[in-house]
Amino acid sequence: MFLEFFYGLREQGVPVGMQEWMMLMEAMKKGLHGSSLRRFYNLSRALLVKSETYFDAFDRVFLSVFEGVEGALEIEDEVLQWLQDPKNFQELTDEQKQMLERLSGDELMQQFLERLAEQTERHDGGDKWVGTGGRSPFGHGGEHPTGIRVGGQSRNRSAMKVAGERRFRDYRTDASLDIRNIQLALRRLRQLTRVGPASELDLDETIDQTCRNAGEIELVFRPEKRNNVRLLLLMDVGGTMDPYYEPVSRLLTALHEERGLREFKAYYFHNCPYELLGTSASLLRRDAVPTGDVLRKLDPRWKVIIVGDAAMHPAELMEPYGNIDPRKTAETRGIDWLHRIHDHFDRVVWLNPDEPDLWEQTHTTRIVSKLFPMFHLSVDGIADGVRALIGAKTLGQTVH
Amino acid sequence: MKEWNDDFLRFSGTQGYIASPALVEAVNASIALERPLLIKGEPGTGKTLLARHVAEGLGMPMEQWHIKSTSKAQDGLYVYDTVQRLNDARFGDGDVSDIRTYIKLGPIGRTFAAANRHVLLIDEVDKADLEFPNDILRELDEMQFTVMETGDEVTAKERPVVLITSNNEKELPDAFLRRCVFHFIEFPDLELMKQIVDVHHPHLDTQLLDQVLLKFYWLREQNELRKKPSTSELIDWISVLLKAGITPDQIEQQIPFLGALLKNEQDTEALSGYHERGGRYPDQWSDLGPRFNN
Fold first, then answer.
1. What is the pLDDT along chain B (294 residues), one digit of tens a residue?
2. SS3 per-residue string spanning A60-84
3. Distances from the Cα of A111 to the Cαs of A75, A122, A139, in angstroms?
4. At what angle do helices A37-48 and A55-66 cross, to 10 degrees?
5. Where are the domains of chain A?
6. How far is CA A261 from the centre of its chain?
7. Which of B32, B177, B183 is the closest to A27 by Cβ?
8. Side-chain half-sphere of A257: how many Cα atoms within 13 Å?
9. Are B286 and B250 in contact (CB under 8 A)?
10. Chain A residues with CB inside 8 Å of B38's CB?
11. Domain coordinates in residue numbering, chain B
């Protein structure tokens, strides 16, 4: 069962390694879980999960693996504790005590376990099932005089219930894409180099020079470390991109606020870049600049992010005069422009707001994803994309 | 009770601080397994305060190392004040022959050298360079380091309890995370928030409190905000409202003194724009998401 838990977590994308797992084993050997499922839940989460973004996945796996185990693990100390505490027996009438005697010991526990096994879902109140209310002898806060306080204090809720609430849904990175999350993902867009004016005291060199100078103090300065990344953003606007207005505009805001970049430029296109790129999202002709000029001006070290769904009519990509806008008629095919962009720059990634399982279904998306490494427009996808832009070269190579 | 080794169950909260079961578990696991405890949470959820209470609950003195963007791992161990020594040598002040005079232990070094067991708080570890956490790993694992200049070894006499806080500004390296026990401070729920407010503003009018919290949690649900208001901003806002003598009715239809809650200009503009366009603020809990209505 524990191995099932381990592999379940890994299957759900929670990065649990042997090191964490051994840590949990060590903790259990020391008895830190205290044989209650609730404590085991807290302990294993603290040791196995290192980011709140995985709490939701952890809850789901915990629920599926330990479903039905609750009683067996929890009953050991909760119920024994209750039975051993004389305070719980003080206010019983003789009749009740008699009844309790009949129910006491193993039989009581047996019943408790049976009820837990019968119960299939979370339950509060009612007559029979274990829960946090109702008239059943089980479940705390009930009217029954001998009600067992399952889970003890009200704040000490059972592990299943805590996991069942799935309060950490909002922290999942694959779901939410707020500006701050994007900025965090973009933080890796860094290549630190010493450029610019010498403004920082170089202590080692100062000491060295001072020694050479027979002890006369000689101050040496050097340029500060700065981010050397220049970023070009090409963005698909209008049409099929309209539903993605929110996430795309958040990405744009995050990039504009990213003060760390050495330079940043953004251009816009509709469906596919052709001979002209818009300098504003309205794509007005008078604001347009020739794509060729952009390529000439920017050297290959510029990092390029293209945002778009890459979904269009095949002719828009593969045929001459493919531009859907009737006012613009140029012979060069869209795919050729994409190849030019691909060949000019060292690193280009494509961020696609469509769900990844849809990519294979669209003909043009398939073609484009063979040319550029394509990532989903989500926090995780952006982080992966940035890694492909910055990290080791192999990541940036296209798959054929 | 089942028997387990009571040596490890050291921490159970302090008088002024009620620790959640999850926190107690995490602190005790970190002590028993001799691993650093990483505490994460939104700004304003009281991470540093929590560390202080853990130290108090354990009855240990605390050494705090506040990390800045310029902090280096080496600073935590010791600093060799070369410039001072150069200066002294140049101008003939002090005894420059003993290099140890110019070696000053940093926070990690001091807890290692101390005779009694300390809590070592490494505060806001994410402020430093991306590689910083990895740089302190070895020393925290082995609980010893060597002073290069003298060859002296500094070994921890009593293994300190290491607490590390992070605001999530930067991703922490995997190797570092693998060695830590992790605890996440959730944003206070409605019940807890009422208790917190009560500490700062006792005997607050219940109707006012209800409207205040309603607006506060509504604002926090707006994903478009650049910076969501936190607990400390809520407390400040209530202070302002009380000073100005705002009545519950007044706050039902609008959000006065918005500047106390939203610190970002664009956020303030966005919200006043919403109001001018006739956007409605919620005045009952059913206007909010399912989290408040089950």
1. 333 344 444 666 666 666 677 888 888 899 888 899 999 887 777 788 888 888 888 888 999 999 987 788 888 999 888 777 877 877 777 777 788 888 899 999 999 999 899 999 999 888 887 678 888 888 888 898 999 888 888 898 888 999 999 987 666 777 888 889 999 888 878 887 888 788 788 888 888 898 899 889 888 888 777 778 888 889 889 999 999 888 888 888 788 888 888 887 778 888 888 878 877 788 778 777 766 765
2. HHHHHHHCCCHHHHHHHHHHHHHHH
3. 11, 18, 13
4. 140
5. 1-172, 194-225, 228-396
6. 24
7. B32
8. 17
9. no
10. 50
11. 21-71+107-185, 190-292
- Chain A, residues 202-221, CB within 8 A of chain B, namely 203, 207, 210, 215-217
CATH superfamily, with its number, for domain B21-71+107-185: P-loop containing nucleotide triphosphate hydrolases (3.40.50.300)
Of A204, A221, A216, which is closest to residue B87 (Cα–Cα)?
A: A216
Give DSSP secondary structure letters for B125-190.
Answer: GGGS-TTHHHHHHHHHHHTEEE-TTT--EEE-SSPPEEEEEE-SSSPPPHHHHHHSEEEEEPPP-H
A50 interaction partners in chain B (CB closer than 8 Å): 38, 177-178, 180, 182
- Condensed to tens digits (0 to 9), the pLDDT of residues A209-264 reads 888 888 777 888 888 777 788 899 998 887 777 778 777 877 887 777 666 678 88
Task: List beta partners, residue A375.
Answer: A351
Helix (H/G/I), strand (E/B), else coil: A148: strand
CB atoms within 10 A of CB A44: 28
The pTM of the full predicted model, rounded to 2 decimals, is: 0.58
Q: Kindly give the interhelix angle for B206-221 and B190-200, rounded to the nearest 10 degrees.
A: 130
Say how far residue B245 (Cα) sits from the centre of its chain.
Answer: 33
Task: Please tell me the distance from the alpha carbon of residue A130 to that of residue A137, in angstroms, as a whole number.
Answer: 8
CATH number of A228-396: 3.40.50
pLDDT in tens, A267-326: 988 888 888 888 877 777 777 888 989 998 898 989 999 998 888 888 888 887 777 665
- B90 and A179: CB-CB below 8 Å? no
CB pairs under 8 A between A and B: 98
Nearest to B53 by CA among B76, B25, B30, B23: B23
A227 inside 8 A of chain B by CB: no
Cβ contact (<8 Å) for B25 and A43? yes
Nearest to A207 among B21, B82, B179 (CB): B82
Partner residue opposite B86 with nearest CB, options A45, A176, A207: A207
Which uninterrupted H or E stretch holds A193? strand A192-201
Report A:59-78 residues touching B (Cβ under 8 A): 76-77
In angstroms, the CA B280 to CA A42 distance is: 41
